[in-house]
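Per your request, structure below.
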């Protein structure tokens, strides 16, 4: 069936597929079908050039399309990816890391290396040396949700 469609439409089948993929991108979230559509359009350009060649069978066209779609995707990711932006709030979405350096009072004792502190409106699990309730501690690191503390 695929071979018949390509034979009937000629090199324009790739142009049609490319335009359909670009139109489908408008209906779907993300920016992925654009690169596959560009691969199809590039295959259409090559098909216009090589259509009369005996070596330009549908199998070769599919391989060229797959390769061009991968190349277009990789180039698109490389050139359109956002570089690391310098910001005045580098820890904005890293709440645990933003707590490093703060001091707090133990809400639960640290027993066998584990305890809890209350910071703002949240209780945080902490790890550190065994200490009684009410001890002032300084947060020295964050590992996911667990904070590592030492006596302040």
């Amino acid at each position: 069936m695929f071979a018949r469609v390509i034979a009937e439409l000629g090199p324009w089948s790739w142009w049609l597929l490319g335009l359909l993929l670009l139109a489908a991108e408008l209906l779907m979230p993300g920016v992925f079908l654009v690169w596959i559509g560009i691969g199809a359009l590039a295959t259409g350009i090559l098909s216009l050039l090589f259509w009369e060649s005996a070596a330009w069978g549908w199998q070769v066209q599919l391989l060229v399309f797959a390769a061009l779609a991968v190349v277009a995707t990789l180039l698109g990711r490389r050139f359109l990816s956002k570089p690391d932006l310098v910001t005045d709030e580098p820890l904005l979405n890293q709440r645990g890391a933003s707590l490093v350096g703060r001091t707090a009072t133990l809400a639960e004792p640290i027993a066998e290396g584990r305890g809890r502190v209350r910071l703002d409106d949240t209780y945080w699990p902490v790890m550190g040396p065994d200490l009684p309730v009410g001890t002032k501690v300084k947060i020295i690191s964050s590992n996911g949700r667990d904070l590592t503390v030492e006596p302040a």
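The first strand starts at residue 103 and ends at 111.

Regards,
D.
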